[in-house]
Structure formats: C-alpha cells, structure tokens
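Good morning C.,

I know you're traveling, so I'll keep this short. The sequence:
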Amino acid sequence: MDNVRFGIIGLGNMGSHHAKMFGNVKNATLAAVADNNPARFAQFASQPGIKTFERWEDMFASGLIDAVLVATPHYSHVPISEAAFARGLHVLCEKPVAVSVKAARHLNDVAAKYPKLKFGVMLNLRTVGMYTKLRELIAGGELGEIRRITWIVTDIFRSFAYYASGGWRATWSGEGGGVLINQCPHTLDLIQWVTGLKPSRVTAMVGIGKMHPIEVEDDVSAMLEYSNGAVGHFITNTAEMPGTNRLEIAGDRGRIVAETNKISFSRTRQSVQEYNQTTPEIFAHMESWDIDVPFDRSSDGAHWKITQNFVNAILRDEPMIAPGTDGILSLELGNAMLMSGVNRTSVDLPIDGDAYDRLLLDLARKYGGKKNLAANANATMDFGKSFGR
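The tokens, ready to paste straight into the viewer:
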C-alpha cells in the first residue's frame, strides 16, 4: 500500500474541518464520508470521487476505505471504532475516545486484539512547538524534580449560542459531560504528557450549570496529588472573559511559565532542595536567571499533522504522536474531577469504572432535560444557584 483511503464519519464542525484538510496530507485520499444528515453532503458535490453514505455501516462494507476518522458525538466513538476494527480498518478517533473510563478501557482491549491495525486519537496539541519544547526540557532534567504544576485554562469562553448549536451539546445523554469532556481533553492530556507525571489523587469543586442554563459542568477547580509529593492545580470554566491560559511548573531547578505563546524559564543556579538544606541565611534568596526559551513556532497544532503521522504509521510504521490508547489519560483525569466534585470527596486513580458509570446515570436522571437556552441572563443566575453545585 502506498496510499491510505480514508472515510470520515460525522460531518459536523470537526468532521467538515477534517475533510478540508486532506489536501495537506501526503499519501492519503478522502474516499468516502458518512452522515445521517444528507444535507451535509452538498459540500462534496463538486468532488465526485468522494462517495457519500447515510449509514457508516454501509461505508464500512463498501470496500472503498482503509481507515476511518471518527468525528461523531462522544457516545458513538467506542461502538463505531470497535466495528471498524472488526472490519479490518485503521481507526483515528476524535477526542474524547469515550465518555467513561470503563468504555475507554474496553476500547483499548479491543484495539489490542488487532495489532496490525493502527489506533490513533486526535490530540493535535501534542504537535504544538511550545508543548513539545516543554516536554523536552522536563524529560531532559532541566527543571529537576517537579514540585508543583498549575494550569489555569479559562480562555475557552462559550456562549449561549454555542450550546444551542446542537441538541446533543451540554447534555448528559448526548455529550456525557461539559467542559471536562469537550473543551479540556487537550489540556488534561498535556498536563500529563508534558510533565511525564500522572496524578494519584484528585480533589475538585465542580459547578453544574453554574454559568449557563445547561445540564453539565461549566466550572471546575481541582487539586492534584502526585506520588512523588508534588501538587497540581487545574482551573477551568467556559464563561470567563478575558480568559487566561497559563501553565506554571515549579521544580528543583526553578520555574517554567508557558503563556501567550512564550516559555519563560527562571533557572536557579543550583538545586533548590540542596540550597534549602545548606544555606546559613535565615531569609535566603538564591540567584536565578530569567531565560526566554526558543521553540519551533511553525509547529502550530494543526489537526492534519496528527493525520499525517497516522498515515505514516500505517505505511511506514512511524511512531505515533498520539496513540489511541493514550486517549484514556485525559478522560480518566476528567472523570475523576467530575466524580470528586459531585460527590464532594477525594478520588484515587485509577478510578472505579463501574462507579463512574453509575454516577453518569445518576446525573442524567437528576439533571436531564434541564438545558434551557431560552433563558435570559437574569434567569441564568437563578438557574446556577439552584442547579449547580
């Protein structure tokens, strides 16, 4: 094989975006698309080489594709991906790979049964130069052992109009959650991928329908505990403007701040722990150097770069930037934050998948149907008081 024939399932915002990017991907062809809304096929009217299907099952049976890119609502990711593997198709799945960690574990087990098929997840921010440089610095020991990780992610404002743009959005039955499963999978992934650390315990506060008249969480503040004694903080919401996107990592050799497409490294001249233990000064202050760290600004996190890497993995067994099995990392962390916030207790990782599934059912029963975007701003404030946590 010297060319990979792709089929895209789901032609909403992301699926349509992926369809347009294939001109950038070498050794790949968009051969087919599937969507249960035929009106979305109009964008391909001038491209007779692309076959359209109203049922993805028919596309799988057509023999026209070698790989599938899944861009459907969240709950369908697992069954579609599982069916694709059974048909001998490579799978590239949009984030999140699943709604619950139990479903993601199941999909990883299924993928393991097909070692000759590639499984990828669209974690495209792993290609951003700022984050790849951070990962390189930390893995190379430049920061020393990590003591604290703080990420404030509030530059993801979403309006009433956004939540009204799809009936499945911001519902437990359609989306399976809010900001943690929709806007934050990338940052929840990067906080682990960049640092190489996975939390062992999570304690969170979660606001459900706090800032919008929706069923799901739109405000989260979490504390993370790590086995090496480090602590982490993760703060996000979809109603703050102007927002902030600031990642701060403190280690034994200083502090790194990544913000506004810039990496600032305050590098200490020696180990902080060593200095702490040996300095005779009561109010000590060690010299540090402020460094602006250069990085590849051409690596912009474009989605097609993950697709290109996926194609290269199929054709040449190139190592994958975002293996599908890694999709569980951000999902489990988000699941743990939601579970902690709703139950108002700390949650140890790995989490109990059955317990989380029961929580989702309880949230759907309790809040299902309460999405009401016809509400005005004043009504929203009342809504948040009675509906949120």
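Safe travels,
E.
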